[in-house]
Amino acid sequence: MTATILSVVSLSAVGLIAGIAIFVANRILPKEDESLQRASEIKELLPGADCGACGQPGCFAYAQALAKDVKILDDSPCRILAKDEEATKNLGEYLGVDLASAGPGSKAIIHCTGDSPAIGSYNGVGTCAAAVLVGAGEKECPYACVGYGDCAAVCPTNAISIDAQKRVAFVDWEKCIGCGMCVKTCPRELIELVSAEMPQYLGCNYRAAKDVAGRKKCTVGCIHCRICVRSSEGGETEWDESKDLPRFVGVPATAAIEKCPRKIILKTAAFPADLVSAPSSEAEASE
Amino acid sequence: MSELVAIFFGMALVNNMVLVKFLGLCPFFGVSKNLSSAFSMGVAVLLVMLVASAVTWPLFHILLVPSGVEFMRTVIFILVIASLVQIIEMAIKRTNLTLYNALGIYLPLITTNCAVLGITFINIDNEYSFLGSIAAALGAGAGFTLVLVIMSGIRERLDLADTPKVFRGAPIAFIIAGLLGLAFLAFGGMVG
Questions:
Q1: In the prediction, which pLDDT does A101 show?
Q2: Are A66 and A97 in contact (CB under 8 A)?
Q3: 150-169 in B: which are within 8 Å (CB) of A?
Q4: How many CB atoms sit inside 10 A of residue A277's CB?
Q5: CA torsion sign, B165 to B33 to B30 to A48?
Q6: What does pTM read for this prediction?
Q7: What value of ipTM does the predicted structure carry?
Q8: Are residues A210 and A138 part of one domain?
Q9: To the nearest whole angstrom, how far is the Cα of B12 from the nearest Cα of chain A?
Q10: Domain limits for position A264
Q11: How far is CA B151 from CA A98, A180, B158, in A?
Q12: Which of the residues A218, A286, B47, B129 has an alpha carbon 20 to 30 A from that of A151?
């Protein structure tokens, strides 16, 4: 009988002491940081994709940095938020700053359409980085997309898909948030961030202008003929001497798209629909 | 002193918590997918084991033994460990937020970790002195961390290896755990 009473008493005593200890600890320890509370409120207003494009490890870290200093919005803006006007306004209201001018944002493009023939078979680790390290992948063109999808793996919004047949990556501009994670990942440096209003891009990254054999490596490779630049009426196409490839300034280059002998100047989703050249659209209609 | 060293290495290697005593297997498989979180978990367990041993040993010898209610130790130890983890979590959260974020969910998980309860019972059953149980807790925590780090290192490499399809994920992890267990059995003859 005494054992029963003693066990009940000892258990309640220990429980009571533990409870008191937690209470005392709660009182003695410094109060929870107020900025933490604020940070978790800010986090509710952020997209929550944890893409890391702002330079912070995830949205909560970004919210913590915001709670400390609003100015980081200028240096490292949240690119997903910039797309969404309402969310931008909400965050601006909460922080008490004007966030109206968000700009068009940027999108990723891939400078390859992947028609280079395979010259070998690679059976190693299935990532682009490994394939490039071992022996430049399977394709003949040393500038071609390797197609193992390292960029698709890091994309926080699954905007990049891999064409299994051509082994080339493709960006869906609807989903792309312009975070730039893929740009850092690509071992071939094929991906570039351009303005979301850029109407066209070059689907090739073949840089060695003097290597004539390079033209044979792919049916859709740039042959550095510069017709795009010569046909440019108002300077919408420039020649990038450092890469030996054309560069576009953001104005629709209809003439260049039509005259390119390899047809590798590709329209983006931002290409104005009313500028589609009349003959080709008629040809499509008649087909 | 040499006895304390023997207890430490005995608990860390010969009687390793995970691979020999088969305690704390859930974090062993759950948190061993990447090296840095495995190390954080290991250190958190080490910390909690140390504090739990330091509190439960006097509690047992001062309160339970004189009252003759040693059979209550399971309930009372769980109660004490749970409150301790609460206090430690509160302290870390309010003093070092970075560390709190790094440990994340692992700290509350430790409350229900059998390895922590296990070390407090081992201290009592082996009739260690107070310093002995501190050494045992340090050893057990170090051994736990060691095994978690080894396992996560292997699993990080396995992610890149060309594993046969049927073995991918958990199955190959169990096989690796078995091989690790065999390897640790070899320590059996080293310290009595």
A1: 52
A2: no
A3: 160, 162
A4: 11
A5: negative
A6: 0.59
A7: 0.74
A8: yes
A9: 30
A10: 106-277
A11: 50, 33, 10
A12: A218
